[in-house]
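User: what does the whole thing look like in 3D?
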Amino acid sequence: MNSKRLKKWCSVAMVSMVVVGTLSGCGSSGKESSKEGDGGEVVINFGIHVANPKEQESVTYNIVQAFNEKNAGKYKVEFQAADTESHSKNMKLAASDNTLPEIFWLDASEAPKYSNAGVLLDLNDFLNENTEIKAALGGMESAFTDDNGQYGLPYQCNVQGIFYNKELFDKVGVAYPTDETTYEDMLGMLAKFKENGITPLSIGSKNSGFAMWEFNETLARYGWEENIDSILAGDKKFNNEDLVTCFEKLKGLAEAGAFPENMATIEYFDAKQLFNEGKAAMFGTGQWDCAEFDKNIGEKIGFWWGPTFTDSDYDQEVAMKVPSAPIVVNAEVAEDEEVQEAVFEFLKFYYSKEAAELSYEGSIFPATNYEGMSATDTQYAMNAMLDTLASGWDSPSTAPDLTVTSAVQEALYNSLFGVMQETYTPEEALDLMDEALENSK
Amino acid sequence: MYWLSKKRYKIGLLIPTLLVYSVFIVLPIIIAVGYSFTRYSGIGKAKFLGIANYVRLFKDKLFWISFKNTMIIFVLAFVLLLTLSFLIALLLNHHLRAVDVSKALIFSPAIIAPIIVGIIWVYILDPNIGIINNILDALGASGLKQKWIGGEFWSPYSIAIIYFWQQLGYLVTIFIAGLKMIPNDVLEAVKIDGATGFQEVRYVIIPMMKSTISTVAVLIITGVFKIFEIVQQTTGGGPNHLSETLVTYSYSMTFTSSDYGYGMSLATVTFLLSLIITGVYSFLTREKER
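Assistant: Here's the predicted 3D structure for the full assembly of 731 residues, as structure tokens:
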């Protein structure tokens, strides 16, 4: 063979290798399901919305560890962890090529779409087989049902409202807020904090429109739950008298200087930092921040449902103890008995009294209610919440922001912050929500 | 190497690259354009809508705000970057003192990850914690304080300045490389003929660097339409999408609102706009060469 021909064949071989290599590299590896672990155990994947479950969702991490220890050699749960935004994208991609993990967390506004796409397992069988769990959930699971059945179960129970720093209230001589504190009382409070150079209510809108939990009560007290079905059905508009009045209250807070001047350039985490450092008097959030407040603010922490409104005809005795986002099960799990058994065993454990105890230890309210659960004396933030919950006020079945699709939800966040940042009038903000609803139909 | 000069072998060797390019660049663009005619939430099946997303886009106030912001950034960045990077390159091409240190300093922002660039500038421009407003306070000029980021007016201008700061060194380097390509004997002849510095630049350097200038211009145009991290890090597109660029607004619609169809229509328009501006620029400069 002469050298020219040799070179030619070498080139052809190399090109072929590159092409084959590239194409095989692009190929899907297929679904990794029903795996056996090193010890022969059935491994199930749990897709979670935080990058580091041990640090960021320590209660769930501890529950999973306890389950794995208890079922060593039989079942094993492994996390597929990514930050919320990446997790959301990953799950969508996985749904499109059938590689969803066996169990995964979903944003409540997105879960119904997965259910409609038929990729979620109906968990009614699981609940019917485990009546004690159904009883412990106390109806909280009803937030995640549709025509396709029980498409998810509550991940946790979210208690949302306004935490406050008692030390700063004492410093400026303002009484702690109570169930009787009205919006007008709150405006008076804000003025005192402003006079003393303290940010009254810490909040940040940069990349964190979702961080509006304290205003879920406000929306509920202006009839969100009573009207949302007719709004979604097109019989009513978001831009209605009740919600205009509600949004005017937010405008009033902005005008009274309730929020940090740089709220547009700080995120939820920066806003929380202001509160942790004692630079802000109040911060709206939920029980997931309790452990952090115990560490930073300790016994000076207080909790409040937010102001009541004298100009609203709707029930003002509204608390916000609602199911958080659902955890769901991949429909394909039903195709493998062993995997389904492992998934159901994990769910049984996740909603057991033992897991509820682990939740309380980590200052998280579990989705279940079992007798004899309580926080320790040093869980200050959780105790503050329990004191407020003792008033026995009713909660809506779902937090207002979770009752709409993600496009409308995003418009709601945009509208709320638009009014708070005074870029929209209440009417303009509500028109945006109507527009988003119209576009999503 | 004679066999390599044959057309069929050249084509053979290009096939892998073309395949990769088609699969990873051309195909996704076609798919994205396809989705722009649908309503798709990322889950389940897409529903064909025809041109409804494009009709919506032209009625969408936020699209026009993003468009306006992108154009402000484009005009500012194009004018500032093209002129100043060229002038700085001219300066650094001379044997001045500390020229190497200056080159290194000017180039240094280009090696910082864009996300870090954003963080750095938050500490400079933030209305509360930023250096600028704090200096104005210290100088007793509080009246001049502005919401450089996070406000309605200044955000796109601030983003243009940040982009300028980040890209300057990179473009200066390209211009310096272009200047080095000009033969020394030409420049010496110009000097012997008694041309002034301005005449040398106007009649010799600029005409001889047309291809470099075109390259830099195209880099700026395409770069502006890809600005993402700076906006995400400084303002997150806020307040209320008022500082969005076309790219960040498209991202927000696609991934935050899960409105993939509409997000893809925004992406398609952005792509076309970038293509048109680049095309117009290439056409205009080609005309001048004749």
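In plain terms: Chain B has one domain: 34-289. Chain B is about 70% helix and 0% strand.
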